[in-house]
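so im writing up the methods section and need the Putative lipoprotein record in one place, dumping it here so i stop losing it
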Amino acid sequence: MPGMKILPLLLLCLPVAAHAAWVDFEGEFEEEKPWVEVAAQLPTYPKVENLIPFDVSAATRNRFFIDAASISVGSDGVVRYTVVVEAAGGAKNVSYEGLRCASGERRLYAYGHPDGNWSKARNAGWEPVKFRSLLSYHKALFEDHFCPDGISVRDAKQAVQSLRRASR
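--- predicted struct ---
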C-alpha cells in the first residue's frame, strides 16, 4: 500500500510542526510592543487647598507640593501631576509633569503662570530621573510616592494616600 510508506514520514514531521507552532504562539505573547504615550490633558490650575507637601531633602530650603486634584495614572503607565516649588524667598514655580516608572524617566508638559494659565513646554522630551541628586524632587516622587520599587501606583487615589501618609 502506497499510503503506508508516507505515514511514518508524516509522523516524523509532526513534532517539528508542533514545535514551530508553539514557538510562534510564544512569540506572539513575548514580543515587546512599542510603548506609546497617551496625549496629556492639562489639569486645572492648582488650588491651595489641594496642595500636599512632600519632603525632598534637608539640604534644600525650598518647599515642595503636589496638587492632589491633578494626579492621574494613564493607560500608558505615566503618572502625571502638577508640582509647586516654593523657594525660600517666596517665589513659586508651577509645572505639569509626568513620571514613567517603567523606564525611570520624567517629562515636563507645561509651565504654570501666576494668572492661572499654562504654557506648553517646548522640546520637552523624556529625560532620565537624576537618582544621585539629593535635591531632585523627581527622585523623591519616583522612589517614595509614585513608583515604589519601580512600579507605578495603581491610580491617583493610591498616590494621594502615599503623599498624605508622608506629610503627617
